[in-house]
Structure prediction request, 403 residues.
Amino acid sequence: MMNIGFFMLFPLLTVHLTRDLGFDATGVGLVLAARNLLQQGAAPLGGSLADRVGYKPVIVAGFLVRAIGFLLFALSHDVLGVVSGALVTAVGGALFDPPSRASLAYLTPEHSRQDVYAAAGTAGWLGQVIGPLLGSLLLPFSFEVVTIASAAAFLLAAIQAGVLLPGGMRGDTGGVSMLASIGEALRDRDFMWFTGLLLGFYFLSSQPTITVPLLAARLVGPEAIGPLFAIQAALAMGLQVPLVRWTTRRAGPLVQVSGALLLMGLGFVGYALAANFVGLALATGLVAIGQLLISPVQSTVTARLGGGKGGAYFGVGSLALAFGGALGNGSGGALIDISLRSGLAWLPWTCMCAVAVASALGFVWLQRDTRFQRRLAAHPLTFGGPRTPVSSSAVSEVVTVRR
Prediction:
């Protein structure tokens, strides 16, 4: 439901702002960058708050705030209104994103965690199939109808979370303040190196919401945007769980990330060479495979390094998305404008390929850090504070029933 609501609106928002409200690509990039920077920059506070008051109430509140932000887009026809909607939308995401990911770690035994994050990714990609297709079907009525439907999806998600999520999920705060728990994560050298290197990944992952829709609209037309997201999602739904299992048996987490980044870089070369929908589809497939390999590893490593302080660590980890996504949105739009003015159509995609290669080399370097490797290999801390011990066979039985 989260991804249905988000991807119903945001790929079409780029086209709406440029075509209907007169924004240029740089202006759209700045709006999206501001939203992303606020959401992920405030995520440490949202995650630390959730560790204290519980994951469920913060998730529900975040969904409701996000729905209000989307309704503001329906009422906005100028820059101030669009920016207001973007900022309220960001606050909602800062509330629900860290506890959503921390909840999966809370409810999942360590040996199943990467599989569970992969399965959650598959569910998210299903939302990315349905969302853009629904948005494309509703857009002929009006953009306002799209935004109202997107808000309704988050309202339904809030109701589902309120009824179906278990209560009592929270982090082990150790009796320290919110700022102190955030500071502990920020002082964790290993975690911050890992988070900093993910800047490049999030820089690249932001492009499907700005540069890729603009390229697709120019080469084929706006009607190509929904099918491109559907291709990404279909690959992820079919491949994420088996491919993650296959790579996990054969390579460590950092090697998986390095290889996936190189695949994404190859995909951006494909965008530079694309001249029709087939070329766009092939490039989109490569980028999607890289994304689906990295996301479960990122969440699994964060949960392992964070131990019982999942909300705070996932919140601080969102800073990589804050700055990487903001740079990706801002510079992506600017690079598109520069390429159009200069006639250098290959410029944005070559720059993005360079980011992918540099980030992959960074993870190769981190792979050689023996202290980091020792922490990943260590016995995991109890997640979520003291709980009643459960046998491993009972945990496996519960997870099977939930699946």
About this structure: The radius of gyration is 20 Å.
